Amino acid sequence: MPEINELRDEYDDQLNVVAVHMPRSEDDLNMGVIEAMAMGHDITQPIFVDSEHKLTDAFENKYVPAYYVFDKEGKLRHFQAGGSGMDMLRKRLNRVLGEE
After folding, report:
1. Deepest of 18, 36, 50, 82, by most Cβ within 10 A of its Cβ?
2. Tell me: the pLDDT tens digits for 56-92?
3. Number of folded domains in the chain?
4. Which pLDDT tens digit goes with each residue over 7-66?
5. What is the CATH number of the domain that holds 24?
6. Burial class (CB in 10 A: 0-12, 13-18, 19+), 67
7. How far from each other are the two terminal CA atoms of the chain, in whole angstroms?
């Protein structure tokens, strides 16, 4: 999360960041725990709790973490799975933001 928080802060006037929590058990639905984890990781952006995995299923996502970059029209421009490769994510993000 530190790298995502950096992007969020660096591009705060150009970028909307939304976190998605994919609960894997009933214990993962405890909002107090979710809020505490968010605070502990400096997650200040909105968090969507995908308790029914509707968003997860819609994107056929099987990875954590997974990153999706959409342009201002809402078109998916980049998907990346896994925590490594933040340089590639930044390059793609810069490309999309440079077009707007």
Report:
1. 50
2. 999 999 888 999 999 999 999 999 998 788 899 999 9
3. 1
4. 999 999 999 999 999 998 888 999 999 999 999 999 999 999 999 999 999 999 988 899
5. 3.40.30.10
6. buried
7. 26
> Quick check: 41 and 48 in contact, CB under 8 A?
no
pTM of the full structure: 0.84
Residue type, 85: G
Please list, residue by residue across 10-45, b when 16 or more beta carbons sit within 10 angstroms of its beta carbon and e when fewer do. eeeeeeebebbbebeeeeeeeeeebeeebeeeebee
CB atoms within 10 A of CB 4: 19
Structure tokens at 70: 């959409």
Domain span holding position 78: 2-99
